[in-house]
Amino acid sequence: MWNAFAYVPLAYKMQYASQDYVKRFQEKRLRYIADFAYRNTRLYKEKFRNAGIKPGEIRTLDDLKKIPITSKAEVKEGYPSRSVAAGFSEQNCVIESTSGASGSVLRVLHDRYAATRMRAVSLRTHLAQGVRPWHKFCILCRDPEEFQEYEKMSLLRTQGIMEGRPDTELVEEMQKEYPYILAGHPSAMVALARAVEKTGLPCTPRMILLGGELSLPWHRTYIEKIFQCPTYNKYGAYEMISIAWECKYHTMHIDADGGIVEFLKDGEPVAPGERGEIVVTNLWNRAMPFIRYRLQDIGIPSDEVCQCGRTLPVLKEIEGRCDDFVVSPSGELIPPTRLIAHFFSTPHIRQFRVTQKTLDYIIVQLIPHQLLTENMENQLMDNIRKAVGQGITVELERVDSIPETGRGKFRTVISHVNVDLASSRATY
User: Fold this and answer.
1) What value does the mean pLDDT take over residues 152-160?
2) Whole-model pTM?
3) CATH pick for 1-322 out of 1.10.287.990, 3.40.50.2300, 1.10.1740.10, 3.40.50.12780
């Protein structure tokens, strides 16, 4: 684990390198990983052959589009015989598992060298945000397994704090641990902030890191109001470890030295400022290669230059998962933020979830506070119906509880009308 510190200087320099240098670095790693995956995994040997290409034809970033996109289902169905490279196994790799928020858990293997290099990239992120190795780092998690997954890739002095307990008990443990940095899912952090506000007990971290779920502007506003400290977002995935992170100027920088990030629509890259499905290529992992892999997230790239001086590509926004988007009968993709805003502008709602069951049917589950009036409820439903447009029936269901979706994550919008924006396919 500590070997990662040896690579931090290289990672630090890369964030200020010229775009030409970064491109040449990516192309060199791409050539290596494409050749390795072809020669050592059945999955990519078959994909290359079916596409009529050889690894020697993959020389530049422009050549990447020759390789077919890989889905999570393909990797999972091929585990381990087709997805894991020859010579690697669970015995000689770092093992992780995706959260299952999409309904499918994937076991992920990282070879130890790849894990070391990506730890260095992650440490670069922490250093840029003001974190130091001696700072105490606490992570809110639902179960010990989640904390163990995080601890594998961390170089910091980390302590797990189990969420979902009585307010006073949770806040008192926070006071006992007294973390310098507190990390967790936005929904868990909001719950902790509400507990702090309710109990009146002080909780004073110096910095808060958010990740693992869609982070909304109101999350940050409320969390910073309660804890009186800055918050930063991080975007990652177990298949890639670190993808993008927020600097002190609140710009999301893409870790271009860890992977290639594409934003695709109809199989083609989108322009800066346009919505695209995120497809990634891990430039380091040999044990279980991920080449042009669909993360099932939708985001917007940017061509802005950050005043921090870093030359890494910029991610303008993560809009959500593909199955967070409501699909209208006309084919319009309605981002979850358009719906969520109406719930947060309506007082006295404890929790909610919007689920699109079919193309023309949505159910809204609501845990109301006793002060929620019928007029407030009717106005909310009118706003939701206007947001999704004509042709969709929207019904309300009052419930006592709403289950989480995977490893402590809570999704407020779920659509069963799946969209493949990368190749422009929708399945109903």
Assistant:
1) 67
2) 0.86
3) 3.40.50.12780
